[in-house]
């Protein structure tokens, strides 16, 4: 009986210890800094994702025309900053 109680206590302590050791996993769409610019003629769509609980950084994803895929833009690049500034100006 004492062995069972000791085993249960050990299992509970182990579970609490392991839970405390976990770090939050970032689920960002972009890995790395991203591209500094993209030719606007090749862009089909640009999506901007604000920081969230799942990813703590601003992400800009460009969908290219003709099924050429998606690319991540560096939000700190002049190209991205100018594009966002112009989009906000046209929106308002």
UniProtKB/TrEMBL annotation:
Q: What is this protein called?
A: Chemokine (C-X-C motif) ligand 11, duplicate 5
SMART domains from the UniProt entry: SCY (SM00199)
- Origin species, per record, is Astyanax mexicanus
- Keyword Signal among record annotations: yes
Sorted alphabetically, the Gene Ontology BP terms of this entry are: defense response; immune response
Which GO MF term does the entry hold, naming one? chemokine activity
User: Where would I find the Chemokine interleukin-8-like domain in this sequence?
Assistant: 25-87
CDD domains named among the record's database cross-references = Chemokine_CXC
Kindly list the places in or outside the cell where this protein is found, as annotated in its UniProt entry: Secreted
- Family according to the record: Belongs to the intercrine alpha (chemokine CxC) family.
Q: Please provide the record's keywords in A-Z order.
A: Chemotaxis, Cytokine, Disulfide bond, Secreted, Signal
What Gene Ontology cellular component terms go with this record? extracellular space
Q: What does this protein do?
A: Ligand for cxcr3.2. Chemotactic for macrophages.
């Amino acid at each position: 009986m004492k062995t069972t109680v000791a085993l249960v206590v050990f299992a509970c302590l182990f579970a609490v210890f392991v839970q405390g050791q976990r770090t939050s996993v970032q689920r960002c769409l972009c890995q790395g800094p991203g591209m500094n610019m993209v030719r606007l003629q090749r862009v089909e769509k640009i999506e901007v994702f604000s920081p969230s609980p799942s990813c703590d950084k601003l992400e800009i994803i460009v969908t290219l025309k003709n099924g050429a895929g998606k690319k991540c833009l560096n939000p700190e690049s002049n190209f991205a900053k100018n594009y966002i500034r112009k989009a906000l100006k046209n929106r308002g």
